[in-house]
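Cont'd.
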Amino acid sequence: MSVESFSTKSRIASPGEGIGLDELQLAARNHGLPLEAMRYDVTPAGLHYVLVHYDIPYVEPAIWELTVAGCVERPLTLGLSALQAMPAQTVRVTLECAGNGRATLTPRPVSQPWFVEAVGSADWTGVPLASVLEQAGVSSDAVSVVFTGLDHGVERGVEQDYQRGMALADALADDVVLAYRMNDSELPPQHGFPVRLVAPGWYGMAHVKWLKSIELIDHEFDGFQNSVAYRMRTEPGETGEAVSRIEPRALIVPPGFPDFMSRIRFVRPGRVVLAGRAWSGWAPVDRVDISTDDGATWTPAILEESPHRWAWRRFTAEWDAQPGEHVLTARAFDSSGRIQPEVAAWNRGGFANNSTQKVAVVVTDG
Amino acid sequence: MSVESFSTKSRIASPGEGIGLDELQLAARNHGLPLEAMRYDVTPAGLHYVLVHYDIPYVEPAIWELTVAGCVERPLTLGLSALQAMPAQTVRVTLECAGNGRATLTPRPVSQPWFVEAVGSADWTGVPLASVLEQAGVSSDAVSVVFTGLDHGVERGVEQDYQRGMALADALADDVVLAYRMNDSELPPQHGFPVRLVAPGWYGMAHVKWLKSIELIDHEFDGFQNSVAYRMRTEPGETGEAVSRIEPRALIVPPGFPDFMSRIRFVRPGRVVLAGRAWSGWAPVDRVDISTDDGATWTPAILEESPHRWAWRRFTAEWDAQPGEHVLTARAFDSSGRIQPEVAAWNRGGFANNSTQKVAVVVTDG
């Protein structure tokens, strides 16, 4: 009896294959942001998306320790109170799962099946990672930083603690924190209690939860989550580009009210203020267009200012809703020149897919 | 353009039909309890199950009002501070969705597709409903109490505010509260902020969230959620029995660690303490049996005492895990004589299904 022989391989669904019970098991465990909750600048507890690869580990905060080792001059072991005694920083961050958008891809990669709801914004408070690394003294041969969580499981036959590497320069960037508070409360268990990494701008897989160790190494990290999972491949066996920063995306809060089962939206005719949120991990969003005719014509939305570089921006647009069926959609532009496409390029992992949202709306006769 | 023509009808999936994108949309919005979180007596925020029929309404607490009207001597309008000024009561309640267990039924009713995770336990603090009704003065002709929420949508062609009726005697029962705190914090939006009904022992559909009105009527309530939805029917058109109290159920915390995709569990050989939770809305659970051979043989688990009548009880059992494949299962008994069946009777809504859980475990060689 070995874990390899019972572990599920990576797989693409057959044409027309419905969502499997394996995918549904993940959807039932993990959870997305109900889109109406985008009305909150900061996502309330329990509405922020959660993706947990294995189980949520139970951690006793009194005995929790974080080790900092490897290519450092002074290896450290920090308890929670030691970490909390260091100068803290709070950063508002929009976090998105790298697999957001996977459920409607054709063909569909078999994994956690998100539509577009794997997102949330929170205020994360913690110690700048740079401060901890400075205390440890980074050796001149350090190249990468490896973050290891207390979550343990098997993936495609490989038993592992969840572990991600990050280039040293990225790890030392401003606003990267070892967070121990979320929205001014202690971290909920599912968000990494007692301490997680928050690396603004990066997709969720980089924000290692339930941190137990930080190791500096003298080469690029080639562990499972960096070199096997979270690569953008179109053919099996390719090396593929690493999944990294969040592609630009705009999401509209579905207006009106829904049908329970289809989630089609019903809107009364007349003036409607459409609102939504847009973000990018590459550069600030500087324009959002909105369309009420499925992308045939576009109008610039009003984009609200925000002092929070790493958080979504609110946008609004007026719509004179006339009876009939309509498809609402929006697209985000960022100041790096990236434009959200109607259909993003497909890859076998279903990663970084920022195809535009489609909101089916029926405007009633009265 | 009318809501009727765009609303989805009730439907049973065809044999072999995979989970549809409509079902997945509900699974992505709503969320279950990751079973490892049963380790907590009280479910932390964000891990408790949530089922929202329409959208989560946004409520300004300063202008929120609750009306109490109908067959009463003194109709009331209560603001939040007035309600909070009344003597409060806290009750620990295990809440379960009436549709828990639906996803694996054959044939499968098409609706929110839960496996077994639509459950959670919380401390609800609020005003006893009986106190509010006493203040209003219940007229002698009152028969039912109708609770209306601020959530609005369409279901099987019927546009509605979410609304449930309850017999007056049930509404006046001890421990029924108008709750404004959950786990000693204000209610999260998704759990009914600012005020919801909590009716211990009843399936979730009775615990109306985002309450706006309470109306006493002189007849049995025949609204949609009582007379159309939430009935146990085996054939269309039957009246069907009303869904009411929670059937007994025991759930084991899956031991060991999971495979990401299949969620199969891996356990090291040797002595394992299995733990879980059991509850019933009819009467206290007084026995739990556990089986490590898929129900071929059963052993009584150790059932922990609990002062909380309406909350789940913890159980444990030792297991000498030998290498190989095993299926763990448990069954709950309550003091009303109800016994959790291996396969509960099917109905078209997939309601009140308390078939036993099956946990597939691979015990490794070392």
